[in-house]
Each structure stands twice: as structure tokens, then as C-alpha cells.
Amino acid sequence: MNTRPTTLGELRATGHVHRSVKAEIRHNLLARLRSGEPRFPGIVGFDGTVLPHVERALLAGHDLVLLGERGQGKSRLIRTLGGLLDEWTPIVEGCEINDHPYAPVCVRCRRLLAEAGDDLPVAWKHRDERYGEKLATPDTSVGDLIGDIDPIKVAEGRTLGDPETVHYGLVPRTNRGVFCVNELPDLAERIQVSLLNVLEERDVQIRGYNLRLPLDILLVASANPEDYTNRGRIITPLKDRFGAEIRTHYPLDVDEELVLIGQEAEVAAAVPVHLMEVIARFTRLVRESPAVDTRSGVSARFAIAATETVAASALRRSALAGEEQPVARVCDLPSIVPTLLGKVEFEVSEEGREEEVLAHLLRRATAETWRRTLGPVDLSGLLDRFDRGATVGSGELVAAADLLHRIGPVPGLSRIMNALGMEGESPGHAAAALEFALEGLYLMRRLSKDTEDGTTTYRT
């Protein structure tokens, strides 16, 4: 940064070219498309559906609104757009609205340019500082978004008609950047009107000032479907001014759900892949269930929170039972049902049966995962022990070593672990594999199970 130009004259001498924000994004997006670099890092499941629409909108220079149910990654996707800006951009030093030194638009910077000429001080702004965001809430005002009179500047002796008495809102302060309005329908309709000029005439109007402030900005909004929220709507003139409306969606298959869980969940203990698959399938079954209000959706945060809860259950067991290496097991799965109830909106007809519905879907998800992973595996070595009258007790507070001791040696354990994609044979992973095998045999009606006070007993 020390070698970058610090005055307008030095900037001109480098041959720097001034581009609008949308031209800047178009140029950088095209470069990444040609090179094969990631355009939207961290975004999962949108490659063949949502992202092509976003890319076309950006190449067209359109402002856009992302429409979709909660937890589909709308905000996450919007926040990646700042990465398509130039890494560093010049601004007039001290400018509140990031004026470009070649073409300042605010009164202060135009005056400074007239006074200093090529000696106009230049500062540099990183692209991370050129992204602005506002969650639309009912108390959001035009002053928050656009601006208002600054009483302190008036008190300093300036007249009310002086444009420099204006305190700029969030939108002008993100000039020459990307600004996001999250949950746009929640913004009061009279406040939405203040954005009309931003999207069409590209300027703002503040109070009764004779002030035209042409903005260079990419405006992006997120919204839930109006038929679900019933809290508000995007007014028709504002909708018309967005160049593109793009629908988002949840991951389309289990593999994408698994990638998302692995990427986003912050786990405090090891969670084997087969348990994450159970959670991914469980999430999809909840979304598809007729007992759940499909208009509300089931957020991706549902699966992420479930994975973190299962890991926390394993960590708790390790502390209470003295395990050295906490590994999540099937016995940790039931703990997610009561904790996730608040993330699902059920149909009115299911009132009082919410936990029962989720518990049933969790068993289905476990059975489907078992059939895919251990269905083809020979489990006769494990079943032989039960044919001889053995019983095995487990539970959320039974340590892995204790569970392995109760089961005893199992011929073919390595085949079970390999089928589940487990590497190594730590006691925690071996216990997780065997308990999953036992649970699947119960769900396939090859074994019976008694559950009481957090303990489980498997028998023939």
C-alpha cells in the first residue's frame, strides 16, 4: 500500500482507469469465468441452478432480488458478491461516500478538487469495506438508509440549506460498492419508496435539499415468498426496478446437504459420516413431510444445528463417562428432536404430535442410511451373539469402551467400519459403527429394543 499513489496527479500518471461498480464486477466475473476460478466461494448446491442466473444478472449490470424460503443461503450468496470487486480502489481521502478522485459527486470533494487539483489527496479502500448490509426492520427509517440533517453540523454554524449539513445514510455510504437489503418485504412501504430513485435514477433525495447525489452502486435484496411471511410485500414500482428476480432453493440431493453440513457445522466432537448422512436425510424428510408447513421451509440451519447438537451430546458423554476421544453414536440422535422443534412450523392438524412426527422421521432417515451403507454387508457375526441369547445395553452415558466390552469380539467388524467409511479402529469409532449396526437391525426387525430413561437394550 505504501507504493500506491497518494494524490490525484500520481494516480493519473499510473494510467488508472475509472470504471463503474457494475463494470468492475462484470470485468472480474468474466476473468474468473475464463480462468475457472471460484466465483462464489462457500456456496453449495446452486451451481447448475441459481448461480447461472446470478452470473447473467451481474453481466447484464442488473440490480437483483433473491427470493426463497428461510435458510437457503441467500445472505451468504449476496455477501460473496463483494469478492468480485477490485481488491483496492482509490477514493478521495476522507470522503464519507467513497468518491472516485476522477469524478467526485459530493459538495465537499468537488470543492477540494477545485482547490487542490492534481494535489487532491487519494486514499485506498479494500473491497471488504465496500460491502454494506441492512436488515429491514419495521423501525428502519429513510434517514437510516438515505440520510438526514446532522444537527451537530448545524450547531457548528452551517445553515440548513448547506448540503454539507447532511448526514449520509447507509446507501450513500456504500457508494461505489455493493449494498444489500435483507428481508426487503419487512421494510415499510413508505420506506421502500425511498429506494426508487436509487434503482432507476441512481441518485438520492434528502429532505428538502436541492441535492442530487448520483450513486454508483449495486443494490441486492433478499426476500421470503410473500405468501408465507404475510408481514409485508415488495411494492410493485420497486419490484419493477430490479433487473432480475432469482429464486433460490434448498440442496437438491443428500450429497449436497452433506457438503453443506461438513462446511458449516462447528462440531465439538467427531461425528462419523454415516450419522451426518442420517441428519441430512432427516432434514430432507422433514422438508417433504405433509405434517410440516411447506411454505415456511426447513432451513439449512436445521441440519447444521442437529450435527452440532449430536457432537455436543458425545462431548458431554466423554466428560461424564471418562472417554478420551468423544465420538458421536446413534444414541446421541434422539437429543436433536426436542431441540429442533422451534425450527419447524407444523400444520395446524399436527398440534400436539410435533415430537412424535420428528422422531418417526428420524427413524426413517436412520433406516434409509443403514440400508444404503450396511444393507449389503454380512452381519452374521454380530447376529450370532444374539442368537445365543446375548443382550447388549447402550445409552447416551455408556462409554465406548463399555459398549465394546458388552458386545464382545465381533467377526467382520472391519467390514462394517469400511462400509461406513471409517478409517482407523479407535474405540469410539468402533462403538459408533457397531451401535449403528444394532440400530439398523432393530429397524429392519431383526432385533428388538427396549428403551427406558435414556438407556437402550438390544435383544432377539
From TrEMBL:
SUPFAM superfamilies: P-loop containing nucleoside triphosphate hydrolases
One MF annotation (Gene Ontology) recorded for this entry: ATP binding
Gene3D superfamilies recorded: P-loop containing nucleotide triphosphate hydrolases
Keywords (A to Z) from UniProt: ATP-binding, Nucleotide-binding
InterPro entries documented for this protein: P-loop_NTPase, Sigma_54_int
Transmembrane segments: none
Sigma-54 factor interaction domain segment(s): 166-225
Superkingdom field: Bacteria
PANTHER family: PROTEIN KINASE PRKA, PROTEIN PRKA
Protein name, entry field: ATP-binding protein
Organism ancestry: Bacteria, Bacillati, Actinomycetota, Actinomycetes, Streptosporangiales
